[in-house]
Specification:
heterodimer; A: alpha/beta; Rossmann fold; 2 domains; 18 strands; B: alpha/beta; two-stranded antiparallel sheet; binds flavin-adenine dinucleotide
Chain lengths: 320, 264
């Protein structure tokens, strides 16, 4: 009986969620009254294992197979580990790579899967708190099984700290090469450009509330009047209205300005991941229940097409 | 070549709403094609336009109401549609990841596609797991969060870009038959033309029940159950400026001046 938490790394670095699954894994192991084991797969497994040997970790299993994440390798390795140690829970992070292997692990082990947990309670049966409808409502999902798989939302649990005294051992495992049918060729950085929004002190950020490309000059005028930099949520970039280097969020840029003005942005988790470190967050949104309201310091619940022209005027600019 | 696209009709919640039991009250829901699936449909249709003899089939698991959404996909160029539903599915309280994967796997076995495209996630429950779970079940290769696809139809090999965190993309080669989960921004989904909408009415849309798929009722049995839904307690303590647009803009302006963001 154990909890098996799977860690992640990229280009030689452990990723933050690796330390978060340790915290969540310990929490779950305590609730189940069991041990916490970690899986470290690929890359510098010894160096990674040393760094992951934090308080509360009982054992670390390493598999030195490949340099980078490959979902076929991860799926096989985690499945084999779970078969060998029969953990109650296989815990993974709901990262982009989590999306790429966690469902396969759950499937291979024939275990129920609940993804993107923001909290859980394991007194008796597992009860997972999730969000639905873009964060407008919360749900609880019960898993009536003593073997399950779970992914946790990044940045919801703090990184594990302290030094542990886990047993670190290589996990003996034969990879079935013929079942590795995906081949990671490399990486590329995208979204560089003339403006670095992560350096800006003040960001005027626009979301789908702007409706049409033709309306963009309105927020550009506001940014000008404020001497601010213009950024956006993903749909604006998807539509090709602004270049990729303006996108704030999980797959865009992480920004930490003094002031972040979110206009017509709902506050989806992947957007919030990129801007929640802003010093002061101001939301302009017609929807009083938009999730952005939960992290905003100041808010205007009104139509941006009414508010923004007034603001531009306040600062001596001219609305287009 | 045959491309199967999994599509889902998702509900969006109005600004003001009430919860009734385990869901938002029907009155406050509006239905639409899942955003991610719209990009998946477009990618399939573009592949069919770029290659000879490509059939694009959509499959959805959903009630009759979802046919409207499915017809949209047909109007955009899919050739035919399958809808999986029957009384047993209608009576099930919650279709978990493994149930959906099993239903879709039965369709894959029936249709034998060369490529399956699905959205990264559904905008309503955001499990983000169906595509990869399906791939595992049918023994297909897969790639999740694909924002660029270069498909070699002869070799059935896909060169994809997977959009990772922080503006990094992974370049991966995937052997077919494969399931790819499609990220928004991969293309520009077209609008359905009036002609397309008319043609869609005549395209086949078949409804399949568990019997047709060779499955029995046990497929809906699941240890995963939705047990409650509620409005999250606002953790925020946002100061909400009230009044007319002129007044609230004035408040914000004063704040920005006091903060020293703008002078004067
Ligand atoms: C793997 C993955 C990675 C992702 N990465 C990112 C990322 O990096 N960045 C990102 O932003 N998203 C990302 N997303 C997408 C994210 O899930 C959301 O789809 C997106 O953030 C929504 O953008 P939005 O808030 O602009 O649009 P919506 O969610 O549609 O919100 C629009 C808002 O505007 C408001 N509004 C509408 N009209 C008006 C008006 N006239 N006046 C005022 N308010 C109005 C509405 O009330 C609503 O709240 C990612 C998704 C996935 C699956």
């Amino acid at each position: 009986m154990t909890v098996l938490a799977v860690t992640e790394h990229r280009r030689g670095e452990l990723r933050d969620p690796s330390f978060e699954v340790v915290t969540a894994g310990r929490e779950l192991a305590d609730a189940l009254g069991t041990d916490l084991h970690l899986a470290v797969i690929g890359g510098d497994v010894e160096g990674f294992a040393d760094r992951l040997n934090r308080e509360g970790v009982d054992a670390i299993h390493t598999v030195a197979e490949g340099e980078e994440f490959n979902h076929d390798v991860y799926t096989q390795a985690v499945t084999a580990m779970a078969e060998a140690h029969d953990p109650d829970a296989v815990l993974m992070a709901n990262t982009v790579n989590g999306l790429d292997y966690a469902p396969a692990v759950a499937g291979a082990l024939d275990r129920p899967l609940v993804t993107d947990a923001v909290a859980f309670d394991a007194d008796g049966t597992l009860e997972v708190t999730r969000e639905q409808y873009g964060g407008k409502v919360e749900t609880t999902v019960e898993v009536d099984a003593d073997r399950f798989a779970l992914t946790i939302r990044p940045a919801e649990w703090p990184a594990a700290e302290g030094t542990g005294d886990a047993e670190i051992a290589e996990f003996d495992f034969d990879l079935d090469e013929s079942a590795v049918r995906s081949d990671v060729k490399g990486f590329e950085e995208v979204g560089a450009g003339d403006v670095d929004i992560s350096e800006a002190d003040v960001l005027v950020s626009i979301g789908r509330g702007i409706e049409e490309e033709d309306n963009l000059p309105l927020v550009e005028a506001l940014a000008d009047a404020l001497g601010a930099t213009l950024s956006s949520s993903r749909p604006i970039v998807d539509n090709g209205w602004l270049p990729k280097n303006r996108q704030v969020g999980q797959s865009g840029k992480v920004v930490t300005p003094d002031v972040y003005i979110a206009i017509g942005i709902s506050g989806a988790v992947q957007h919030v991941a990129g801007m929640k470190g802003s010093d002061t967050i101001i939301a302009v949104n017609t929807d009083p229940n938009a999730p952005i309201m939960d992290i905003a310091d100041y808010a205007i619940v009104d139509d941006l097409f009414d508010v923004v022209p007034e603001l531009i005027e306040e600062f001596g600019g001219e609305a287009p | 070549m045959k491309i199967l696209v999994t599509v889902k009709e998702v509900a969006q919640v109005d600004d003001e709403f009430e919860i009734d039991g385990l869901d938002v009250d029907e009155r406050y829901l509006e239905y639409d094609l899942n955003e991610w699936d719209d990009y998946a449909v477009e990618e399939a249709v573009q592949l069919s336009e770029a290659n000879d003899d490509v059939e694009v089939v959509t499959v959805t698991v959903g009630p009759e109401r979802s046919e409207e959404t499915v017809r949209m996909a047909l109007a955009k160029g899919a050739d035919r549609a399958l809808r999986v539903w029957d009384d047993t599915l209608a009576g099930a309280e919650f279709l978990d990841v493994s149930t959906k994967a099993e239903l879709l796997a039965a369709v894959v076995e029936e249709e034998d596609p060369d490529l399956v495209l699905s959205g990264v996630q559904a905008d309503d429950d955001s499990f983000g797991a169906t595509g990869v779970a399906l791939a595992e079940r049918v023994g297909f290769e897969w790639a999740a969060v694909v924002n660029d696809l270069d498909h070699d139809a002869d070799a059935n090999v896909s060169n994809v870009r997977r959009e990772l965190e922080g503006g990094v993309e992974e370049l991966t080669e995937v052997e077919g038959p494969a399931v790819l989960t499609i990220q928004t921004g991969i293309n520009e989904p077209r609008y359905a033309s009036l002609r397309g909408i008319r043609q869609a009415q005549r395209k086949p849309l078949d409804v399949l029940g568990l019997d047709d798929l060779g499955l029995d009722d046990s497929v809906v049995e699941s240890p995963v159950a939705l047990t409650s839904m509620y409005e999250p307690e606002s953790e925020g303590d946002a100061v909400v400026w009230e009044g007319s647009a002129e007044e609230t803009a004035g408040e914000l302006a004063t704040f920005l001046r006091e903060k020293g963001v703008v002078e004067g």
